[in-house]
Amino acid sequence: MAAINAIDAPLELSTDGVSWKTLVCLTSTGTNMSRDVTRTETFCGISVSLGNLQVTVPFAAICETAPTASQVTYKDMLGWMNNGTLLYWRIYNGASGANFFTSGTAYVTTLDQVSDAGSTINFSGQLDMTGTLDITW
To answer: Which residue, 91, 113, 107, is CA-closest to 5?
Structure first.
């Protein structure tokens, strides 16, 4: 078995779904998924109804003084949040046989910047997905 290293499956963002950029100096990311569940007890047994899939993508990164053209910066994230820009996101490993892929569209819904004494300037936030989760690779 060969594990997939996190560095090989970074969070990538796009405004058009064609040109992709990685989040600058990413320190962590992932996906959180949930569904609302309604359970109703009846004389026939318990009925379960599922709500819509809810997906959030948390992220944390370090601000960079010289980001490359292929990196998403804190300024980019701030602009997208301020303007309510719909983004395309994906986390995948493109290596043959890796079979790791999630993507969708989302808005930046939280963005926090932290400047602790003796540390780097960090930012973190969350994307809230709209539409359908794509897991095809």
So the answer is: 91
